[in-house]
Amino acid sequence: MDTQTILTDYVKEELLKGRKMEIKPEDDLLSAGILDSLGILQMVAFIEDRFGYQVPDEDVVFENFVSIEALTNYLKANQ
Q1: Among 37, 51, 56, CA closest to 7
Q2: Nearest Cα to 29, choosing from 75, 71, 57, 1?
Q3: If I label 51, which of 19, 44, 45, 64 is the partner at 20 to 30 A Cα–Cα?
Q4: Is residue 49 part of a domain?
């Protein structure tokens, strides 16, 4: 399974919490209310656990977490 699919599945299962929403890789997770400050911390923990990549504090910024596409690009650039 590729990184984008893994992240999408996580968002659907853990962050949407049963809401029937279709999300695309480019959708703004923050503006849509899917990802908030607690969700970002959960996402960081998931990334560190699933991908074995330690996300530095300075990388926890809007640009890296705005969408699944942005997260995928961030991980590809830093792994």
Answers
A1: 51
A2: 71
A3: 19
A4: yes
